[in-house]
Each structure stands twice: as C-alpha cells, then as structure tokens.
Fold this sequence. Notes:
heterodimer; A: CATH 3.40.50.300; Arc Repressor Mutant, subunit A; 5-stranded parallel sheet; two-stranded antiparallel sheet; B: 602 residues; CATH 3.40.50.300; 18% strand
Amino acid sequence: MIDPEEPVRDPAGFVGQAGLVRRIYSRIGADRPQSVAVIGGKKSGKTSLLACISDDEGKMRALADGDRFLFARMGAQGETFRDPEAFLAALLALLPVSDGDRGNRYEAVRGRIDSLHAAGRRVIVFLDDFHFITTNPLFPLEFFSFLRSMANNYNLAYVTTSILELQKLCAVKDVQESPFFNIFTNLHLGMLSAQDSRALFLRLTSLGEALADRVTGWCGGSPYLIKLAAVRLLQEKSPEALDEERLERILAPVVAPYFAEVVAQLPPAAYKPLLAISKGKGPDPSNVHYLDPLIKQGFLVEAGEGISCFSPGFAQFLRQGLGSGMLTGKG
Amino acid sequence: MGGIEELLRRRRELLQEIDQEILKSHTREVTLLFTDIVGSTRFYERMGDIQGRQMVQTHNDLLFPIIASHGGQVIKTIGDSIMAAFPEPGPAVLCTVEMQKAIRSHNEDPSSEHRFHVRMGLHCGRAVVEEKDLFGDAVNTAARVESRAEGDEIIVSAAVREGALQVEVPLVLLGSAEVKGKEEVVELYFVNWQGLGPEEIDRTVRARAVGKKPDAAPAPAAVPASSAEPPAPERQQGGPRVEIRPGPETESGSRDAGPLPGRGNPYLNRVMVPHPAMFFGRRALVRRIMSRVSAPKPQSISIVGERRIGKSSLLNYLRSPPARTEVLDSPGSFLFLLIDFQQARTLDAGQFFGLIFSELRRQHAGRIELELPEEDEGMRLLCEALASGGLHLVFLFDEFECVTKNERIRPDLYSFLRSLANRYPVCFVTASGRDLKDMCVSHEISDSPFFNIFTVQHVGLFQEEEARALVCQPSESRGVPLAPIVERVLRMGGRYPFFLQMACAAWFDWLESEAVRAEDVRDEPRDVREAFREEARPHFEFILESLPAGERAALLSRAASPGGEDEPDSLALERKGYLQRTDGGLEPFSAEFRDFLVSFRR
C-alpha cells in the first residue's frame, strides 16, 4: 500500500540521494562531527532522508567507527518542540544516564554529554522540522547558545531539516543574528536523478521499465510526485498501454495541486519570468532572483545562461495555469 | 709515512671519522616502546608452558596490529615482552593508549580464554641501527622507564612528553627518578588513559614509580586563603582553602576532540578549532598577547573581530601546551582559565563567580583544589593564594559582550575585576565582536575604568603565508595535497579563515571523490564552485545584511570598482576583513565574495 503523504521510515525503502547521504555522513564522521542543515521544500523527502541517515545499521555501514556514535532522533511530534523544557526533557530521555543528573535540565544535558565525550562517544542529534523551533518565540537566545556551546565543546553535532535556511526562519531577531547558525553547513535536498526516479517508480509499482521512463520523464524527479503517479496508475487496468496524450491527461490533475503549492511560495512578480521559462524563453535577468527558491528546490534548472523547468509536466502546468491566469486569479 | 706522533694523531682522527660516520649512517632518532606482561612467570607455573605460550600468542595477536597501525615496527619479542620502535613520540603514545584499551576490552570479554595485564614504557632518543635491531643508551633507558610501570599503566620519559605535546592525552608529571645504570635522573610522566583522579595517581602510581611528589617545584602547599595567616603545613578542614599543585598543567579541562585522527577531509570544522595542531596562523598575535600577559605587570587584552574570524579558536589555542611552551619562559607558572559566556547571558554577580569557580575546578582538576565562598571575597582570596604560590592567573573570556550587555551585572563587579588586575598578577584576555565599550548595556558600565586596562587587538585576515599554510599542510598530511592549486583555492576563499576552510573543503572533497591529483586539474570544476557557494552564500548574505548602511554601500561599491579613496567605511571594512588591500587598492577578500556582491548589486 503506497501512501504518498507518509515518509519512508524503513531505510530499505529509501531510494536515491546517494551523493547527499555521502556528504552528510562525511560531515558527521569528520575529525570533529559537523552540523548539517538539510533544506528542502514541502514533500521533498526530508523526513525520509533523516530516517535513512539516522538508522543504526546505516551508521555502522557508513561510518568507520560507527559504534562510537550515539544517534538521538527528535521531531516535532507531540510536545517535543513546545518549549526548551519539553525539548531538553525529550533529549535527556535519549541520552544514557550517567552518575546522576545535577542542576537544571540544561546542566543535566551538559553533564550527560560530558560523560559521553569523556568515554570517547560522539553524539549526533537529528532534529526533523527544526524550523518549528526557530520560529517558536518560546525558545530564547540562551537555548540556541546552549546548543552551540555543546557543539563547540564536545564531540556533538546536529543534523536538522527545515523548509528554508534556518536563519530565515527565526522568530526572534537576536536568535537570527546569533552565531548559532555558523556551525551549520547548508545542504539542499534536490530532485532525484533520472535513474533513481525510475528505480523508485519500479519499486512502487513493478510496472514495466518503458512506462517508468515515460512517467518519471514527464513528472520529474520529485519522489512525492512519483508516488502520486504510481498510486494513480495502479488504478488503471492497463497502464502500460496508455498513449502519451492519455497518460498526461491522467497525471496532470494528480500533480497539479502540488505544483500549485510550489508556485504559491513565490511573489506575484515571479509569475512573468516563470511563464517565460515554461515557454522555453529566457527570463529577464533582473527578475531571476525571484526564482531562487525554486532553483534551490530543483523545480527550475540552471543550464549555462538559461533556466528551464525540471520536467515537462511542470512546464505544462505553468503554461496552462499562468497562461490562463488561473494561478494569478485573473483567469 | 710520518713519525709515530703523526700516525697516532691520524689514528685518532680516523676513529673520530668512523664514529661520525656510524652516528650519521647507522643511528636514527626513534621512540622506543617496551611492554611486559605482569605476572607471566606465575601464570606459566600455574597453567603450564603450552597455556602460557598461548597467552603470549593471544597478546601478540592483539597488540602487533595496533603497533603497525600507528606506524610502529616490532623490533623483537623477548619472552612475553615486546620491543618496538616508532618514528615519532606522538603516535607511540596514542598506540600505547589504544593497546591498553584493547587489552581492557579483551579482558572484559567473557569469551576470552586468557586475561592479562601489561605494563608499558616509552622513551625517545638516537639509537644505533644494526640489521633489524636497535642498540644504545636510549634503548636501555626505555626498558628502565617501562620497569617503573605496573599492569595497565603507561609511563613515558620527559623526552617523549616534549615530542608529544600535540597529542591530547593527559600526561601527568610523576617526578624525577633515578634509573638503574644511568647517572642522570629521568623525569617521568604517567599517561592517564583511564582518567584517574589526582589523589589516586598520588597514592598509587607516583608513590611507587618515583617514591615521592614531583620535584619540579616545592611540595604542594596548602595555602590558607587569608593574607593574615601564615601558610599551614597541612590541609585544613573547613573554612576557605586553596590547594595548589605545581605545574605543568594537565589540561584536564580541555574539551578537545581527543587524539588528532588522520583520515578524511581535514577542513570540515566549522566550530572552535579544538586541537592545537589544527590551529593555523596568528603567530605574531599569539606572541604579542603572550608577551603582554607575561609582562612583570600583566596587561589585559581585548581581542576584537568579526564573527567566524577565529576569536574562540585563538583563545582556546592560547591555553594549549604549544602556545604556552613556545612563547612563555615558565609556562608552569601561568594558570589559564577559559570561560565561554555565550550561554551565560543572564548571570548575576553570584552566578558569575560560581561559573568561574566551577570552571577552575573542572579545567584544573589535577592542579587546584578550592574551598572558597563563591563571591568576590572568595575570588580575592584565590588571587592572593595564587600570587603567594607564584602563579599568574589569565582569564580568557570568550563572548565577553554577553556580560557587558547583561543588565544584571552591576558596575561594582567591573570595579572589583579591575582591582584584581591592579593588586595581583591577574589579567584578562577577552574576545568580542566590537570594542567592549561599544557593547555595554549602559553608560554607567561603559564609563567604568575597568575598560581602560585593556589594549585592543583586532583580528582580521590571515597573512598570505598563514593562508598558504592552511591550504597546504593539512591537505598534504591527508594525502590529497592542495599545494599545486593553492592560488585557485585562495582566489575562492581568500585569506578569511572561515571561508578559506570552506574552499579547501570543497576542493578536497572533489579531488578525493574524483580521484584526481590537484596538479592535473586545468579548469575550476563546477562541482567545486557550487559546493563552495552552497555553503558560503548564506554567510555572505548575512554579512551584507548585518553591516551598517554606510559600510554596506562601500562594500558593494568596492566590488563593482576596486580602488578609490580610503574613506572611513572602507577602512572599517578592511579592519573587519571584508576588504583586502592589494596593489590596486581595497577590494573584497575573495573572487567569490566579489562575484556575490556584484550579483547582489544587480
């Protein structure tokens, strides 16, 4: 049963992003573990990626001295990201108890990390949807200073996911300007390669390779869209017999809501250059900066001097939606 | 043929030449390891020869690979002892620690058939090389050093310790010992790989190995923390008390990442540089700071620099053994205390002193014991006791603006700190983003005479040769030398340490993953540029957004057209490290930064 809305929890079911996974492990496994911020749009596979990276078996495979690493996984579920107290309590629950905690929760966490450091352990804290913390005004500057101090003084690093760069998602100006964010290397979660897209479709459907190429070629390398397409095509009696026109007619309404959500991130000033790109024309250079978010997320692709859409399906959606004024409310 | 006198003279010269030749061609500097299984004779007696030999085989199988993995060579085995040689002391020390850990794991494993405990000793010096064996005084001394250890212990000579300063394994001075067959005494150090407390080391290892307290300085004095009373000979119960042991310090508080490993990309660190061996540059600044703190009347320094310029790493380096031993005449008479205030923004005065005392106990656990009230009076008593013991106290205060901006810290605290610096051999080295006086919560604070005791030192870009060293040395040591492309790396990252590390990291990753040698690279690979930009651009954006309007305009203007007048905003940017001075005038610190500014301007 495929549920496109559900992240992949089992690392065995995770497909692609091998280069990104390698880069993250190289930073976690550096002389001194390094913090990484994985940035990706909605439904780009951040949570699935984090589940894959933080898997204990993967750790032993990817890291030379995997048994020295302690992985602590935290997410926005429940009350964990409600306030610092709840966060630290949840973190304490993931760290082995040393010889009794002292002081407040900050001190207790520090004490346990200190013990782990002294024992030669390395601690990696995985924080899914970390923007829920940076945008929460209940988390004061001291909290972020504490996190940075832990990374500065111990063999500890964070791997976070967020929909935008963390610094752009801060509730408090002091936090935004704090040096906490200096410790992160930002890595953008882009689209799957053509080969990985095809592999994902085949794994989900067991349909033919020719259809896999046609579907992923039209949808592009978004794992979410590939899953949506797979679910829809499995409802067809003979999906492999569909001609191009019919295939696109079936898939277009399936992918449209997601594309609409993607375009909605942009200001109206971006629509004109976006429409030009969808028609294969170069955008006015002065407007290109509006498109940066979509370039970073992989929906637009820079090639030489020009920019193009990541898939024919997206270009078609833009031409129809923006050309008709449907997306801009002028249609 | 000359007379007999001439012949004898010639004979003497020839013998000297032969000695010189032997020394030159047949001796080498080595670090020698001796190990010995404790109680093996009894084991043989009890279990028989076959079981005894089996135990030795298990021991060899366990330890030989560890020796090889640290670059060592087993010279020979003598019964249940190993004699091995290493080219350098550092790896030898790390090797002994790993061997002891491996033996511990082996002994803890319920399936292990034979359990054993091994003593280890290290010494270094020149040894005569003959075929595959080594001979000479250094070999004999190494064996004697080993005999001072007991099971599970590692003891090393001062020569090893000197050569292994960069290795962050705690080495505790035991004292000097007469070594059989040698006229001179040998200073011995205990490798505290198990994290024993100072009292335990005193009670067990030191008492047995050297039979006394360390003799590098007078016996530890229990200094009563009151100027009115004479020093008491024994530890007092209750009341204020400061107990100081003689240096050198064991650096127990250093939160380093442990031994410096030797694999992977060495440029990934984006937090404080923990390891002195990975700290580059700033040599002139370090010397300047050290000369001031070690002046007859110690001087306080305010280090001012932009974010990511390396202030925290500099402070951490100042307290490291290489910085102290390289610059200070008597490093053991200085007590450095590093306090990071980034997480202590809302302290009151009491908590401020509490933090200082707790860090003092943590960072100098082997050297100092305190029972003092955690308030200004306790602080004064501490400074007095340290001064009586001939010790200089150097406070290294990182992110000190978190204190000066803190409303809960009243002006009288600053007056008190100033009085400490005036009365005792105490000084402060602070790090902050701007001049401290400009970062005070009120005029009442900024007007405090406390701030007059500081000399300001700005931290900016690396010198050219420092930047080149950062590009070339770590990459060379990891087998992916960047030296052939050093110019390109510098163009990308500039002499700004934080961004230069990023550029090095991007190049190193690419060369390693593509298995390409730097000298074979013709163009700048797109992947390298993109990796650098992905990491650097958010920081570039932050720099630009956080600058005052005038400096921001000046920076954008210099990016578009370098050169021009040196107006105040541009000079401020040069001091911060965002502009560098070239033959053509001031320009952005790197080509990538300039390109970013130009595109931003568009």
